[in-house]
Amino acid sequence: MPFYHRMGDIPRKRHTQFRRPDGTLYREQVMGTKGFSGIQSILYHHSAPTEMLRAELLAPCQIEFEDLSPLRHRHFLTANAQDRVDAVAGRRCILGNEDVTISIANAEQPMDYYYRNSDGDELLFVHYGTGKIESMFGTLSYVPGDYIVIPTGTIYRVVPDAGAGKLLVVETTSWITTPKRYRNEQGQLLEHSPYCERDIRLPEKLETHTEEGEFEVRTRRGGFLYQHFYKQHPLNVVGWDGYLYPYIFNIGDFEPITGRIHMPPPIHQTFEGHNFVVCSFVPRLFDYHPDAIPTPYFHSNVDSDEVLYYVKGNFMSRKGVLEGSMTLHPSGMPHGPHPGKIEAGLGKKETLELAVMIDTFRPLRVARGALQLEDLNYPTSWLPPT
Q1: Residues annotated catalytic, as ranges
Q2: Which of 153, 146, 140, 149 is nearest to 167 (CA)?
Q3: What is the pTM of this model?
Q4: Any known ligand binding at 46?
Q5: Hey, which family's this protein in (predicted)?
Q6: Structural domains of the chain, ranges and CATH numbers in brackets
């Protein structure tokens, strides 16, 4: 979705001399994707980003998945997770495959280190809590409902405000962008898109640090977590410009698409990545055909797994889901409204539900660490009451 942006001080032309007040050169860094054929930004540092004191292997971070089990619908009560760490160390993976992992994090403590994911882009959805993201591109403040898109290779840390905070975390091995059908050939969001560039929040201010000491950057790469220690503060950028940077879109700015009869899930799409999409279910008016059935019909995702994370409200087609519930409906298996929900929805004028949906086009596996959060009665919850 990117559009050109610039912050701080930069020279008039790229790859030319750019000097500090004392006459020495700033260090230019080109940060790009797809081997210089994708989007990129150019950053100018007080010191070279390669001035590393030492590197250490910290720990493996591969996800341990459950053994093969019966194919069934799954429900995880993530509100029961009591981990109270920071936004990275506190991530508990629920589901994952070769393309994406889906985790929750109770982010209550500020990170006392910096982090960069070198495997792919990240998407942090703020369920509740406020705080800020301090990054090499500048500082972004976050509030509940924010989607925070962080490009691969970005050095950042999460600093929550006092009090509880919770994130839904999507980690990829690729990229995250806006759906192609919402953009013209120049990349501008079209008139029928459910949001536009005015809804995007960019870094608010560029804070340039020149402190020296020993600064830790934890780097994720290929299933392992590494420690890199630098003499210079990692956020020593004096200016940058380009198309690659972190940004925020709030789910409250998603304008729902409605119709006379029930509309399919793609109308809720908000982002896409390699082999997955992210959708936003927001408060909206229901269908207005006189005989419309507002509740979703039974359907089979014959080539995608469907994950729903319930944020708040009364989800119209489900019973027994709570705030923080996460459901998995595997590909090839029909799913739909629980008993009584179709009739209960007739004549309703609106829904106040808020949820995030993630559809993946390769099967998801359940992480071992999620099993203790599972509602084992969910697969049989469609049986009529006796």
Answers
A1: 262
A2: 146
A3: 0.96
A4: no
A5: Belongs to the homogentisate dioxygenase family.
A6: 52-68+80-235+243-250 (2.60.120.10), 251-380 (2.60.120.10)
